[in-house]
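Researcher: Please translate sequence to structure tokens.
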Amino acid sequence: MQYVSTRGSAPALDFEGVTLAGLASDGGLYVPAEWPHFSHAEIKAMRGLAYPDLAARIMAPFVTGSLTEDELLALTHKVYGDFGHAAVTPLVQLDSQHWLLELFHGPTLAFKDVALQLLGRLFETFLERRDERLTIVGATSGDTGSAAIHAVAGLERVEIFMLHPKGRVSDVQRRQMTTVRAPNVHNLAIEGSFDDAQAHVKRMFTDGDVIHTLNLGAVNSINWARLMAQVVYYFASALQLGAPERTVAYSVPTGNFGDVFAGYVAARMGLPIERLIVATNINDILHRALSAGDYSAGGVTPTITPSMDIQVSSNFERLLFDAGGRDGAALAEQMRAFEQARAMQLTNAQAQGASALFASARADQVETARALQWAYRAAGQVIDPHTGVGLHAARVLAESGSVPANVPLVTLATAHPAKFPDAVERAIGMRPALPARVGDLFGRAESFVELAGDYATTRDYVLGHAGNA
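Model: Translation complete:
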């Protein structure tokens, strides 16, 4: 399997290459040169597989030439045998149409664990093979940071610098990063928003002083291996709900577009998906892009769903590339213009390509709280605010008829409610407790460095503290 850049001028790489590279050298994101496809019979034959076995089956076409089937199967059993639920990503029914897909049974209680626990093992495998070291630089709006840190903490060949926007992640999210005491982990709290932190990271991958000094890698959802791992739970849940004979719809709380793009990949691979609902909070650039073609970034407004407080969604570029005809040169020009003006209109091809599968809705904080209340009172389920955004969107689209009543509608439950106890308590009057396995989180000492919000300060800190500099 070969991978190409969305901006057309970076060299094609194999799976091992894109896993270690993260961002393409031309500033684009890697996608498979062609989508693998499973037949109806092949999907039907996946029914009943345990999650680690299903994961290996789904991901096998993407790793051809870099991992054998036995190597991949060994990795998936090692990773998914250690989650807090035997099903790894269990389904919970809310009513006759609505379901929750619980993605928070990993070590940091968020959906990012499903992919990042695997990514850590892939890094270890490939770096050992090459006898190399890797410096990971990442940005997090909340959950990616802790999941990435837990995935690589203590690895001999990996060092990680994780940027988070100071004061704009929850206490639980911050502590899950800053209480990990490992010599290869560096937590950086920067002034500004997640978009600022993400812009610093993307700039480092094209900064000659950095890339000629460090062997850089990425754990954000710009890394293809992360997206690949997330495709699996779409197959797992759809199979349980009757696929491939029955279509399934999904509502996905969306910030950086990686999780919902994994659903798009599943559909391209043959999974019968009726609709993918992009659910945003009031930082609604993706809702505006999908509903009106207006991809224009404004200021970031802090909300009770901090992981979605984003105005520039990196992975949206992958959809624009694929839905717009895979013209890398044209997209590179379009994205350069966007990066200067922070505004652009989708082309007709991009808009029409997206509308075939995607719908969208936004939720303000009142609507989010009401979704938490409905889940608790109608179905006895305590959910986090990000999941609440997704559930609000799911109910709006179902009530409007955009998703037929006979189609199961699955909202991705992206985080454990105890990660956002204040918001949950305000909504339903009950404070969720942390699971026993992380119950001592607030008794652990924190360690992080505060930095000004300019790029030079961040770059100089990373260059000055990387062990392999």
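Researcher: Any highlights?
Model: The longest strand covers residues 158-165.
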